[in-house]
Hints:
Elements: E1 3-7, H1 9-25, E2 31-36, H2 38-46, E3 52-55, H3 61-69, E4 74-88, E5 96-98, H4 99-107, E6 124-128, H5 133-143, E7 159-161, H6 164-173, E8 177-182, E9 191-196, E10 203-204, H7 208-212, E11 219-227, H8 232-241, H9 244-252, E12 256-257
Parallel strand pairs: 1-2, 1-3, 5-9, 6-7, 6-8
Antiparallel strand pairs: 3-11, 4-8, 4-9, 4-11, 4-12, 9-10
Helix pairs in contact: 2-3
Amino acid sequence: MTIQNKGSDTMVNLALAWAERYQALYPEARIAVTGGGSGTGIAALINNNVHLANASRRIKDEEIASARANGIDPQEYIIAHDAIAIIVHPSNPVDQLTLQQISDIYSGKITNWREVGGEDRPIVRLSRETNSGTHVYFLEAVVRMNDPHNRTLFSPDTLLLPSSEGIGAEVRLNPNAIGYDGLGYVTGDMKIVAVGLDAAGPFWPASVELVTSGDYPISRDMFIYAAGVPEGPVAVYLAWLMGPEAQKIVLDLGFVPYQAEAP
């Protein structure tokens, strides 16, 4: 049996590292990992094409209903936590932004860096594509400020990129750009902007420690959804993912273990 595992591009490197380690420990195991986005993974789960779907957002009620209509009862597992880092080019003098300022940038109300203390330069907005769980989370938690009645949208001139790596690559090249990425994709050649709930602060940079403490304001759970109650090899693999060895890989790749006491 090959365990089919598909979904979140944010989680794909983590899922590949898990599968590689597990297959090294248990050579008889077979795990096939592919990305495509959280929505793609959940759609595959709904259609009974995968055993496990990785998602960087929670499954929607209508997706659960579609799955159950197909005889699939999705089972949710929180497998890790993640921070969404706000990133800019290293030359950008802006060190901190409030959630409202980030929302106003991405909705198009703020269009020039000088409006938030930077240089007189146009802001180039970078986002993941709409099928990305990271895109959905950022829209709801940041652009709409966690207000269920807020219908604000991304500015139409926002550049939609297909991968976390794509956002990082553009930020490194473009001094006018702003992007958001899972903490595991942030490298030393980009600048993390500290985020505050309001102008009074405090302002927090994205970090494992500040997600664990609950201080960083843009953090989220990372999910695995199983196609029904796991059995056999799928159940054994999921149990391993929740254990210390797999959770150590979570930390090594820049994510946050689902338990604060994990190594």
